[in-house]
Amino acid sequence: MSEPAFYTRVDEDTYDSTPATASPWDESLQHGGPPAALLATAIEATRPDEPDFPIARITVDMLGGIPQGRMRTEVDVTRPGKRVELVEARLHVDDRVAVSATAWRIRQPPGSTQEHAAAPLDLPPLPDEQPQEFFPGTSPEWGYGRAVDWRFVTGGYAAPGPASLWTRLRIPLVEGEPTSPIARMLVVADSANGLSGELPLAEWLFIPPTLSVTVLRAPQDEWLWFDAHSTIGPHGRGLAQATLADRAGLVAVVAQPLLVAPR
């Protein structure tokens, strides 16, 4: 991967995208994952000294194609609170809001429910490095695809249907800066639909205008277990869902409504 990161920082709230953010269908647009992670990072920055007040649910709305180029984030705490708080964030591109997000924070007193916590999951071992094969017709140089390490246990980008895999980022979200565990997760969470499409992507459109991730806890490791499936309804709609986990147990659940239509 030749790109150093998904974004380079210009100033406190302004960034330039790199080709690592590229959509598989149009290199002039961004995949939804990196912008979602950038907004999560902006939201986390409103409480930089309070690690025990993390994001518990984030919903990211893509308000059309997300252009490559220079972009600016802004954040408002719309419902402050000591134990529960609502934050809104927006990503501006070319003087318009291209992506918006709302996030609930829930305070987590460390260890307060440890004796009742779910047990670790029995997950498959991490496969050896695999050839990175993407959607049929997609360039092997696809920026976002190459910026992530995809190691499938079942399914695959080129195979319609459910998929399960281990995944991690190869590059940071912002050049020269650490990527938070929640941001690492958001970069890949928007791939639930693409990983588990039930119909051939050369013949069908699956458009997810929004992404909702409900978080049990932050991932503890760079490798994330991703188990995704999609369901097609009878009236041109679908639902993509995914479970995200690590060796310590469940991390989050993902849901995306889909517009399903012939190309």
TrEMBL record:
Taxonomy, superkingdom: Bacteria
SUPFAM superfamilies the record matches: Thioesterase/thiol ester dehydrase-isomerase
Domain spans labelled Acyl-CoA thioesterase-like C-terminal: 127-260
Region (Disordered): 1-31
Pfam families for the chain: 4HBT_3, 4HBT_3C
InterPro entries: ACOT8-like_C (IPR049450), Acyl-CoA_hotdog (IPR042171), HotDog_dom_sf (IPR029069), TesB_ACOT8-like_N (IPR049449)
Acyl-CoA thioesterase-like N-terminal HotDog domain location: 22-105
UniProt protein name: Acyl-CoA thioesterase
Lineage of the species this protein comes from: Bacteria, Bacillati, Actinomycetota, Actinomycetes, Propionibacteriales
